[in-house]
Amino acid sequence: MSPPHPKLCDYLSMIKMRTAFTEEVDDKDLAVKELLEQLDVATLSKNSVGIIFTCVDFVDSGVIDALRGALPFDYVGMTTMAEATDKTFGKYVLSVGVLTSDDCEFVTTMTPAITLATYEKDIIDTYKDAKAKLGDDPKFILSFFPYVYNVSGHNLLDTLTKVSGVPVCGSVTMGDDFTYDACGSFFNGGLDKFGMTMLLVKGNVEPKFISSAFSENKVTLTNMCGIVTKSEGCHVKTVNDIPFVKYVRECGLELTQENSTTLPLLFDLHDGANSIAVGAYKVYDDGSVMVASPIPEGSSLTFGQLSVNSINESLESGITKIKDSGNEALILMPCVSRFSMLYPQNNSEMERLTEVFGDKPFILGYSGGEVCPVKVASGEYVNRFHNYTFTAVVL
């Protein structure tokens, strides 16, 4: 049965969103037909761009390739473990969100394959070419990062931030499992495993960025205060002048390479933003760790609790922040670990979001690493890389 035909929501926002979905993975012609019927492309505004979240099944079956030329606008997107719109959710859905506007402009692009040797030059050159097409600085950039074992998400984000100077949001691409073998992004065509896509948005829009991490679990010993005393970028070496891993152990916890992703680390950078949640990507023999985002010396450390309750608490906090921001259209990219930890009710986060925001357009894709600006004490947004976090772009 074909999906219902959603209406275009008429709001004050200068960017509107239409959403569409299909669960038809075997018949690519039928899948494209369903999407086009829902989007009603003949009535879109002057400028439009698409965002696609889907699982690799729609790549393997040829549906994604069939979209090339069928959609009358550029698009970017990524593979993910589960996806949703305001009308449906699940693991085997192709979700499309279309941003459309008369007074906003969109430019899409993709870098060559990201490598350690060339990623900085490739990101800088690709961004500059896209900006030249746009004609001015964008208000924000939506970007999907490839998973490259020797180039971190922070490296990619830092390079794009330095060359653009604007808010960057997005995600590391995600596949059906945590091996990252079958994942990638889309740019006006099929799957590209190692390219970094960008959507530059210019015009009458003031995006808001929402992030909600885990509730803090009071596991720190009462006679200790976890202060980062030695760090270099993402390499956190000591807390309270002792090796990081030893400090964790003195707090009654264990951190090893085998369990490093199960313990969310919450760092307060004392810059006016909420604590950032990150994982330990590498645990070294000297007791230091490599984390997802730079942690300056003097930052405070506590720990998150990876549980169904803490996920639900952070979700409700995120929902409240979205409501307070006056949302009209949403791009949601929560951490994939949340989807995994909610087993056997893996869909419960998506179900709750559909329940709350089903009357307004949104698109969701679970993230392999969240890119979301945070607002610091000056009132400005600072780009940051997160783990375990519910993130949203509000338009």
Any chance you could write out the topology, listing elements then pairs?
Layout lengths: L15 E7 L5 H12 L7 E8 L2 H4 L2 H5 L7 E5 L3 E3 L3 E2 L3 E8 L2 E7 L8 H16 L5 E6 L7 H12 L3 E5 L12 E3 L3 E2 L4 E7 L4 E5 L3 E2 L10 E5 L2 E5 L2 E2 H7 L14 E4 L7 E3 L1 E4 L5 E3 L8 E5 L3 H17 L5 E3 L3 H6 L6 H10 L4 E4 L4 E2 L2 E2 L5 E2 L2 E2 L3 E5 L1
Parallel strand pairs: 2-3, 8-9, 23-24
Antiparallel strand pairs: 1-6, 2-6, 3-10, 4-5, 4-24, 7-12, 8-12, 9-25, 10-11, 13-29, 14-22, 15-16, 16-17, 16-21, 18-19, 18-22, 20-21, 23-29, 25-28, 26-27
Strand order of the largest sheet: 1-6-2-3-10-11
Uncertain stretches of 5 or more adjacent residues = 1-12, 216-223
Derived structural class = alpha+beta
Largest sheet: 6 strands, mixed
Globally, the shape reads globular
SS field, number of helical segments:
9
Q: How many β-strand stretches?
A: 29
What's the helical proportion of residues? 10-25%
Percent of residues in beta strands?
A: 25-35%
CA-based gyration radius: 20 Å
- Count of structural domains: 2
Cα distance spanning the termini: 31 Å
Average of per-residue pLDDT values:
92
Describe this structure in words.
By secondary structure, the chain is α+β, with helices and mostly antiparallel strands. It folds into 2 domains: 279 residues, no CATH class; 89 residues, no CATH class. 23% of the residues lie in helices and 31% in strands. The chain is built from 9 helices and 29 strands. The strands form 6 sheets. The chain has a 6-stranded mixed beta sheet. A hairpin with a 5-residue loop joins strand 26 and strand 27. Helix 4 crosses helix 5. The longest helix is centred in the C-terminal third of the chain and has 17 residues. The radius of gyration is 20 Å and the shape is globular. The N terminus is likely disordered.
